[in-house]
């Protein structure tokens, strides 16, 4: 009996490794194009509104989100609820913690990340880059800290919506890719597309 379990586990492991190491050039092309356009739009907004090294729109957690929403589009962490909710909740937590403990970074940084994780779990919006969004509110540049709760709306909400809308376009351009992966979302998305095509 234990030998059969080991063999079954070994076969599953081999299959997973095989699937993960397949090279799918079409998938890579759409991942590249989507992330390039999404981050490119944010970088363009950044270059128009801000000068120098003060990256306000280009917060680091958007790079990690791009990996999920353009590269691993079927992941539960990549879905719209998680992408948008995770960032917004985490940004709000990060700003709140910074306001309560602005000068004690060794307390504020871990508190922001830990509370962000807990609130994302409670609201079922777990999105790993959200932890970085909370942390950036505490350790970011003075320009970011000076935004206060505006940080939640812009750059976070605005940036996330740009990434999401770009993902909707580029992740649904071929029949092999479908985003969001939840059937309810996808059903509504295709209804909207059909209505627009008729007009």
From TrEMBL:
InterPro entries: HPP, TM_HPP. Keywords: Membrane, Transmembrane, Transmembrane helix. The chain crosses the membrane at residues 29-49, 55-73, 104-122, 149-170. Residues 23-180 form the HPP transmembrane region domain. The keyword Hydrolase does not apply. It comes from the Bacteria. This is HPP family protein.
